[in-house]
TrEMBL record:
Keywords carried by this UniProt record: Membrane, Transmembrane, Transmembrane helix
UniProt KW Membrane keyword: yes
Organism: Bifidobacterium choladohabitans
Region (Disordered), start-end ranges: 1-21, 256-324
Bilayer-spanning residue ranges: 45-66
Bias-annotated ranges (Low complexity): 256-279
Record's compositionally biased regions (Polar residues): 280-300, 310-319
Keyword set includes Transcription regulation: no
Domain of life where this protein originates: Bacteria
Protein name as catalogued: Colicin transporter
């Protein structure tokens, strides 16, 4: 025991002695619970201030973060609304609406498939009519309002997408029937032209029109494609050639009728002349036998000179023919005149005769 006590005392001495001649510092007393040494005290107000600053910083950071997120949401809503409205405008512009109205006016007898007309009417009704829709997207609008506007634009866009599909279908059906009708009309016109070409041979005033008709028929046979206009143009060219041939046929028919009428009139005139001449000759001979004689003077009588001869001025009836100037002039010109008695009365060939002449 003694040895142990001596060793313990010795150890204490070694501990208490400074190492290397250093002065030993007083031992600090640390309170239980690990608090700060009692010698470094802080003010009581420091902790609430620190807590308040921290809370304010957190709130401010939260507000800033919320504002940033909200701005991003607003910008996204504005962009979404703008794109939805732009898409809708593409389907409801003035030209597109005019096309929809035209398609809606197509009737069942104008299309190959009547179901397309029914579908078009249904789509227009579902879209609540064909009209311009105005939806606004403004930066001043709230995020909720922008999202609502975008949703409305998309809904209307979907309805007009159905209208657009129905309009294309009914228009295609109409075009198909138009093409079919144009082909049938051209075929019928070619048949008409071919019959006229055969019937008009030798009946034309100008045979060049017949050559033009043949050329139009050949060109009509070359019409092809999926556009009705090509077949309508060929039919129009055929009709123009047909009209020219018909006009030429009519001109020749009228000319033939006029020639026939003239020939008939000439034949009737000649027949009349042939039937009337013997009667007149017979009457003239008879009148002359009744005593009208026209004596010719000898050369030199009445006006002398040369070899002319003139009828006698003395009538066999005993009166002077110069008393009747017209008769005398006719006799001088070699015409046969009427037979006049001695009282100046005409007894034969009295055409145009009057006693005063």
């Amino acid at each position: 025991m003694a040895d142990h006590d001596g060793e313990g005392a010795e150890d204490l001495e070694n501990v208490s002695d400074p190492v290397g001649g250093e002065v030993s510092a007083p031992v600090a007393i640390v309170p239980e619970g690990g608090g700060a040494p009692s010698g470094g005290r802080r003010p009581r107000w420091l902790l609430p201030v620190v807590v308040t600053v921290v809370v304010v910083a957190v709130v401010v950071a939260g507000l800033v973060g919320w504002r940033v997120v909200e701005n991003r949401r607003h910008d996204a809503a504005l962009d979404s609304c703008s794109r939805a409205v732009k898409t809708l405008k593409g389907k409801t512009g003035p030209d597109r609406l005019a096309g929809y109205r035209q398609a809606a006016g197509i009737k069942t007898d104008q299309v190959k498939d009547a179901k397309t007309v029914v579908a078009m009417a249904r789509s227009v009704k579902d879209a609540e009519g064909i009209r311009q829709r105005t939806i606004r997207c403004k930066a001043s609008m709230s995020t909720g309002d922008l999202n609502a506007a975008a949703g409305q634009a998309r809904k209307i866009d979907g309805k007009y997408a159905a209208v657009d599909r129905a309009a294309k279908a009914v228009t295609a059906s109409r075009d198909a029937k138009t093409l079919e009708d144009a082909k049938a009309a051209l075929d019928a016109k070619k048949e008409e032209a071919s019959r006229l070409l055969a019937d008009s041979d030798g009946k034309l005033a100008d045979n060049a029109t017949r050559d033009g008709l043949q050329q139009a028929i050949d060109q009509a046979g070359q019409a092809k494609g999926d556009k009705a206009k090509a077949y309508r143009d060929a039919a129009d060219a055929l009709q123009a050639a047909i009209d020219q041939v018909n006009a030429s046929m009519q001109a020749k028919s009228q000319a033939d009728q006029q020639a026939a009428a003239q020939a008939q009139a000439q034949a009737a005139q000649q027949a009349s002349q042939r039937s009337g001449s013997p009667q007149r000759k017979s009457a003239t001979s008879s009148n002359r036998r009744k005593g009208y004689t026209q004596s010719r003077p000898t050369t030199g009588q009445h006006g002398g000179g040369g070899g002319g001869s003139a009828p006698s001025t003395q009538h066999s009836g005993g009166f002077n023919l110069q008393d009747y100037p017209n008769l005398w002039n006719q006799l001088q010109q070699g015409h046969e005149g009427p037979a006049i008695d001695n009282q100046g009365n005409c007894i034969a060939d009295c055409y145009g005769w009057t006693g005063s002449n």
